[in-house]
Amino acid sequence: MTITKEQLLQASESAYMNDEQLDFFKALLEEIKFQTLEDIEASKNELSHPPEMNDEGDRAAYEEESSIRLRTLDRDRKLIPKIDAALKRINDKTYGYCLESGEPIGIPRLLTRPTAELCIEIKTLAEMKDRNYSK
């Protein structure tokens, strides 16, 4: 029996990343991967079969939609290796722990971003450093 999102959020800290929780996230990540692969395939199909366009307005709208679809396709392609890495961490039983500090990432953060590798504190510091170096 798989636990629910509500049970996951109500679990005690001592239950963090037990087998039930790992199974929950494994199923979640596998579903996200499946859906993402389907989206990639649908995008590739749509981009390879453009509709017939009779005027400049249609052409401009199609080009804008294609540009958005290409950005989404790129983002989806980059997500697949992140999902695979998260699934590997589940198999290694290191999923849910910050790669830098070893601290728990936390259930709410993992529900929001199941591929998260860093706890919020380390991620915030990294983003602050990025902002400082990009100025």
Structure at a glance:
This protein has 135 residues and is mainly alpha-helical. The chain has helices at 5-10, 19-48, 56-92, 107-112, 120-133.
Helix content: 55-70%
Number of strands: 0
Question: Which percent band covers the strand fraction?
Answer: under 5%
Give the CA-CA distance, first to last residue. Answer: 51 Å
Outline, from the CA principal axes?
elongated
The largest sheet, given as strand count, sense and whether it forms a barrel, is: none
**Structural class per helix/strand content?**
mainly alpha
* Low-confidence regions: none
Rg result: 19 Å
Number of helices: 5
Mean pLDDT score: 90
Topology order in helix (H) and strand (E) letters: HHHHH
Describe this structure in words.
This protein has 135 residues and is mainly α. Helices cover 69% and strands 0% of the residues. It has 5 helices and no strands. 13% of the residues are buried.
Search tags:
mainly alpha, 135 residues, 69% helix, 5 helices, elongated
Architecture blueprint of SSEs:
Blueprint: H1 5-10, H2 19-48, H3 56-92, H4 107-112, H5 120-133
Helix pairs in contact: 2-3
